[in-house]
Design brief:
Oligomer: single chain
CATH topology of the largest domain: D-Maltodextrin-Binding Protein, domain 2
Strand order of the largest sheet: 4-3-5-12-6-13
CATH architecture of the largest domain: 3-Layer(aba) Sandwich
Number of strands: 13
Distance between the termini: 38 Å
Structural class: alpha/beta
CATH superfamily of the largest domain: Periplasmic binding protein-like II
Strand content: 15-25%
Shape: elongated
Length: 307
């Protein structure tokens, strides 16, 4: 294969055919003629020296599947770059920091990776990191206190949209002297944890988060302690007053002496998300979102599955 530069027009036509599964529908979507789209795909195949699409029926080859992932990332980055330059030309006001909200440990290792990738891509753009508590699941975005937020689970609010990032097994945090602590190697069931004295959360905590915290209300008991941060949860756990729940990666970030993390083997796995305001047109938000989603897909497909 000789050296050449990827033409975004060719990638756009190729990706449209992959997503539509049909040359004609792809052409209509791009406002091009079917022969033009066919020629674009053929040229891309000739340049790369590999078959990208089966023709009958239309379906990507293994090489085409691989290129489609790169094409999505490149086209998203190109669109974000154009938006960024448009903003630069038409808005000479001093840039406001991109405010990144993080609930707990966010999306595990993906959170710092995304922030560092954004800082490398936009070294001149300031970043402001803000910690979010359990009650700010969606309100920090809706009230314009952050621009992007690493949260779990997905907010149930039409004013917010969210991209899936990681998917993990559920765990409970219990005192080391708890009878359930002995199950840290074999795991427990939802029925086993239903009567744990879980921490209380304020009444205005969004219902999706309380359902997540209490295993969709399977956790019927509530302990005497209230908590809105992981540190408050762990303080209650280590003093033997309450139990908490989270994702498996929680144990890596909050390994407190006296706290044991027990897998809940039959609980549905839960996901973390990057949430943004649905109507936000800030190009910095688009850049951060595109980079974060590209990192998540690169790590494990539609979202990183943490074992």
């Amino acid at each position: 294969m000789t050296s050449f530069s990827l033409d975004l027009r060719l990638l756009s036509s190729f990706l449209a055919v992959v997503e539509e599964g049909h040359f004609g529908r792809a052409a209509a979507r791009l406002f091009l003629s079917p022969p033009a789209v066919t020629a674009h795909v053929q040229r891309l195949e000739n340049d790369l020296g590999v078959l990208l699409l089966h023709r009958n029926p239309v379906a990507p080859t293994p090489a085409g599947e691989r290129l489609a992932g790169h094409a999505r990332t490149l086209l998203a980055a190109s669109a974000a770059a154009l938006d960024d330059m448009t903003e630069l030309v038409h808005d000479t006001r001093r840039a406001r920091p991109l405010r990144v909200g993080i609930m707990g440990h966010g999306s595990a290792e993906l959170t710092p990776a995304a922030i560092n990738a954004y800082r490398r891509a936009r070294p001149e753009a300031p970043v402001d990191i803000r910690n979010l508590d359990f009650t700010e699941h969606a309100s920090a975005l809706v009230e314009d206190r952050v621009d992007v937020a690493f949260v779990r689970p997905a907010p149930d609010d039409d004013r917010v949209t969210a991209d899936l990032l990681t998917t993990e097994q559920r765990i409970v945090a219990v005192p080391a002297r708890s009878a359930l602590a002995d199950a840290h190697a074999t795991g427990a069931t939802v029925a086993d944890v239903a009567d744990l004295p879980f921490v209380r959360v304020p009444g205005h905590t969004p219902r999706p988060f309380t359902q997540y915290l209490y295993f969709d209300d399977a956790g019927r008991r509530r302990g005497p302690d209230s908590a809105v941060t992981p540190q408050e949860v762990l303080t209650s756990v280590v003093t033997g007053r309450a139990a908490g729940s989270g994702l498996k990666s929680f144990a890596r970030y909050y390994a407190w002496p006296g706290v044991v993390f027990v897998p809940v083997v039959d609980a549905p796995w839960e996901s973390s998300y990057l949430a943004v305001r649905a109507t936000d047109t800030n190009p910095e938000v688009r850049i951060f979102r595109a980079l974060t989603v590209a990192l998540a897909r690169g790590a494990g497909g539609a979202g990183l599955t943490v074992r």
